[in-house]
Structures are given as structure tokens and as C-alpha cells.
Amino acid sequence: MMATKFVDTNIFIYAVGTAHPMKRVCALLIEKIARQDIDVVTDTEVLQEVLYRFWKQGKAERGMITYNRIVDLMQNILPVSREDLGCSG
User: Fold this and answer.
1) C-beta of residue 36 within 8 angstroms of C-beta of residue 86
2) In the chain, where the domains are located
3) What per-residue confidence (pLDDT) applies to 89?
């Protein structure tokens, strides 16, 4: 059984973004995820960060497209709870 890996925001941003030294390797990772070659999760905070990043650049529509692709791609999207944030009550 392979260990589950967490996919953070930068993987998605580099994969769909402009030219960057990490673009190709991140795109290849996305391809592996799509083929289910690796066991991965992400969380709702990553989705929020992707939306915010594109919104901040004035590219909200592209952010929604990327968001929807991530939701379709990922088998597991974990919630972020108050407990995860270290909040009491």
C-alpha cells in the first residue's frame, strides 16, 4: 500500500500558470494523479487559496475553471475544521 500524499496549492498554480521552472514537473504530477498512479488528498483551504490567487490577479473566471478541474481530479478533498485551526469552542 502506498502512502497518501498531500497536494498543496503551489502544485496546481504552477501546473496551470505561466512559464516557471516547476511548471512541467507539476503538470506531470497532475497527470499521475489523473491516472491514479499515486494516492493523494488535498483540502478545502487549497481550493480557497487557488480561487483567491486567481481573483487577486483579476482572473476570477480562470480561478473557477481551475477550481472545478481540481474538484473533478481529486478523489479526496478534506475539510478544514475549527479543531484543525487550533480554535477552541
Assistant:
1) no
2) 5-78
3) 56
Are 55 and 63 in contact by the 8 Å Cβ rule? The answer is yes
Q: Give tens-digit pLDDT for 23-51.
A: 999 999 999 999 999 999 999 999 999 99
For residues 78 and 50, give the distance between their C-alpha atoms in angstroms, rounded to a whole number: 15
Nearest to 44, CA basis, from 81, 86, 5? 81
Is residue 3 predicted with pLDDT exceeding 80?
yes
44 in Cβ contact with 82 (< 8 Å): no
Q: Per-residue pLDDT for 88 more than 70?
A: no
Q: How far apart are CA 46 and CA 67, in angstroms?
A: 9
Give the span between the Cα atoms of 66 and 12, in whole angstroms. Answer: 8
